[in-house]
Amino acid sequence: MKPKKNLKIEIMAIGSELLTPYFQDTNSLFLTERLNDLGMEVSYKTIVGDDWDDLALSIKQALSRTDVIIAIGGLGPTQDDRTREAFATVLERKLIFNKELLQKIEGRFKHRGLSMPAVNKKQSYVIDGAEILENRNGTAPGLWLDTGSNKIILLPGPPHELKPMFDESACPHLQEFKTDYTARKVLKITGLTESKIDTLILDLYPDSPYLRMTILSHPGQIEIHLSSHSKKSQEQADKRVQKLETNILERLKENVFSASGEELEEVVGNLLRLNKRTLAVAESCTGGLLGHRLTNVPGSSDYFLLGVVAYSNKAKINALGVSPSLIEKYGAVSSQVAEAMAQGIREKARSNLSLAVTGIAGPTGGTPEKPVGLVYIALAWDKGSKLKKNLFLGNRDKIKYQSSQKALDMVRRHLAKNKKKKRALK
Asked: Where in the chain is the domain with CATH 3.40.980.10?
């Protein structure tokens, strides 16, 4: 197959489990990203179960409408692993036994002190004319097949097997079909709604087929994905994205917390470290999520001193020194208690900054005066404090995550503001 200007690519995720609510096809996201890096766009994504007729029909459709088919899963040793056999049947090619491949599979079991089950022998059969893609992390080999009109890649389903196999064995084959130079950038934003962002940058939407901008909404943050393609050079692709990025940053200013892929907790961690500040947190409705996110960052012990989950009123009183009369008068979910929690944890940890979160994550516990989603967040430091009253929407998990996101963003904005003040004084 000769290289084409616009290769049509289909990713086919195979397995009946993917058609249930219990499993997600995350492999196709990884493959899409890798293909985009090669300047290739995915035209179709298909999920099909293990039923023979359904699988054969999906393969025939993919062969008729795409140039490259990447099939995921169904290469195991069990009866419901039918990918290899289905492709061979549809392509009218034989499955050829490969003795060397069988010996490698047997060797894997032997290395673990096990005998190879007889069913694993089926994994040593290869579609006639296909090249074997080595699996360093499992027993299911991948396959690369050029039929003349299609390129076909068969990959195992487990991500820890699929990812290195694609990067090391499949990508080199696809490199010859790279027709575009690509550049990508993701801007992460918090503090603005999707509609507000769209209004602010409406006139920046590119009308060029070589430049694309997409806004994606996530709980607690918005992402703007920029991508550029160039037939000429990588430099041209980079410049197109950089120009658009600069224009967006001028409009959205401090609401953009990352242009390099960092999560908000990483950005906050870097700011704390650069400003030589320490942080402690007191959590109620977030149940430790805030501390979890902060400590997910390597080296966070440089700035994160203490986290307390004071879920009950008794814990707020005993662990944080919140006055019982304060809780009795205003309730545990109140601005007064949030501020008291923040001061209490800062004194206890002797940190420069402290955060406190108290609210109603639901689905029960809300009242007309204090509905589900009501969350108070307090930030305290040596010379003052700041309080935010929030009303988040969504289920329990989303409310907890949005609360942690808002709390982290309060720290980010506080440190960034102080940094600007210091610069102005110089």
From this structure: 9-177
